[in-house]
Design a protein that fits this description.
The protein is mainly β. It contains five helices and 30 strands. The radius of gyration is 21 Å and the shape is globular.
Length: 410
């Protein structure tokens, strides 16, 4: 797991009343279930959706979002979509106020699969996401999972298939699943479970189930007396969200219980909430559980009955890997292969090699950057401790040769 792809969304509405309920998607008439393929890029589920019968767009499938959001206003402007009213949106730093507009009766289609004839969505005034920098792929917004909630939703991360089942005819015949109760509140789903911060330190926590988060686990360290970063956690930029970069700590927790299953030694991000923040917006939650951990299971969600089923996937027992270089890299350029150093972890191999914010990586080993993807770069930085990596960067018009030796940071 690399902190460069940590990108999650938190939306709160400071207006008196929220949006009207969305219309949601429908399976084609006569079908009892439908398989929807998705792209899985840097731990994000990305769906290909047609907007208003014309634009093919890419949306993140997000169980952590209350409403569907279009981040590229130029698309809705080009389609002459009218905006009914303005909303103030709180970003994922939980304090920055952003502006969005309500657009009604938008049609969405996944051709020959499902359709939503009249969705109410938010359109951001500006593209606050900047998702391309963190995943190296175009994304135009997020799709609230609530838009599928009239159906039973199955996410098969191994096959990269999402299946929607008609709830009247759905029966879980496959063995190996365990059932867990979940709470549904304002179109989002929550799980209450036990978290072992250390072997002898156990806390009951409420976690948002958030497929819009490309991380294993995020905890708000001032929401529970036992929830705090471990002694060996590193202080770092923990990622990017609506509203800007997020500062915090990265460490590991001993174990998270998920029914009869458990994951151990989990890479965990810790964010301290601003003292002025209104805790009511969190709905009592202590953090969120993201795709890097959810992706170790086959997941079935039943919004209407408040149930979730989990079954281990192929990578259930794999160790959680964190960046071993200390480099936080973002992507830019037409092919998303201009790699820029966004930040450096103190006392890391990157800081010892004198990498600096703004350095452009032009070569790793013998491979020029134009032949790499952001995923490739992150994978290289997660190789085994002791691995020597030669990197050429461009700084102030000059090329500089660097060498780092990877090691565990947490």
């Amino acid at each position: 797991m690399s902190k460069a792809v940590f990108f999650y969304f938190v939306f709160f509405f400071t207006s008196v009343s929220p949006l009207a309920a969305q219309g949601g998607f429908f399976i084609q008439p006569g079908q009892r279930q439908v398989d929807i393929p998705f792209e899985y890029v840097n731990n994000f589920i990305i769906l290909n959706i047609r907007f208003n019968n014309f634009f093919p767009l890419k949306f993140i499938f997000d169980t952590g979002a209350e409403h569907t959001i279009l981040s590229k206003r130029e698309i809705s402007d080009l389609m002459r979509v009218p905006y009914e009213r303005e909303f103030r949106v709180t970003g994922s730093d939980l304090k920055t106020e952003l502006i969005a507009y309500l657009a009604r009766q938008i049609r969405f289609d996944i051709p020959e699969k499902i359709f939503a004839p009249h969705e109410d969505i938010l359109v951001l005034q500006e593209d606050y996401f900047r998702f391309e920098e963190y995943a190296g792929v175009d994304v135009h917004g997020i799709l609230s999972a609530n838009a599928f909630s009239r159906y039973i939703i199955r996410i098969n991360y191994d096959r990269k298939i999402m299946t929607l089942y008609d709830r009247e005819t759905f029966k879980l015949r496959e063995s190996g699943f365990i059932e867990m109760p979940m709470e549904v509140y304002r179109n989002k789903i929550y799980l209450t479970t036990r978290l072992h911060i250390q072997p002898d330190s156990i806390a009951t926590v409420k976690l948002l189930i958030d497929t819009g988060a490309g991380l294993p686990l995020l905890l708000f360290s001032n929401t529970h007396p036992l929830v705090h970063p471990p002694a060996n956690a590193v202080s770092t930029n923990i990622g990017m969200g609506l509203g800007g970069y997020l500062e915090g700590f990265t460490g590991r927790v001993y174990k998270l219980e998920l029914g009869d299953f458990a994951e151990e030694n989990i890479v965990t991000y810790f964010q301290t909430l601003d003292s002025a923040f209104n805790m009511e917006y969190l709905h009592g939650r202590n953090g969120l559980l993201g795709n890097t951990l959810l992706g170790r299971f086959n997941v079935i969600l039943d919004y209407q009955n408040g149930k979730m089923w989990l079954k281990p996937a192929r990578n259930f027992k794999q160790a959680f890997v964190y960046d071993r270089s200390g480099l936080n890299v973002i992507a830019s350029g037409p092919g998303f292969n201009n790699f820029i150093v966004q930040s450096i972890v103190e006392h890391s191999p990157a800081s010892e090699a004198d990498f600096r914010k703004g350095d452009e990586i032009v070569r790793i080993g013998l491979t020029p950057s134009v032949l790499l993807s952001l995923t490739d770069v992150q994978r290289i930085m997660q190789k085994k401790p002791g691995k020597k990596i030669k990197i050429v960067v461009k700084r102030d018009g000059k090329r500089l040769k660097k060498k780092i030796i990877l090691r565990d940071l947490i």
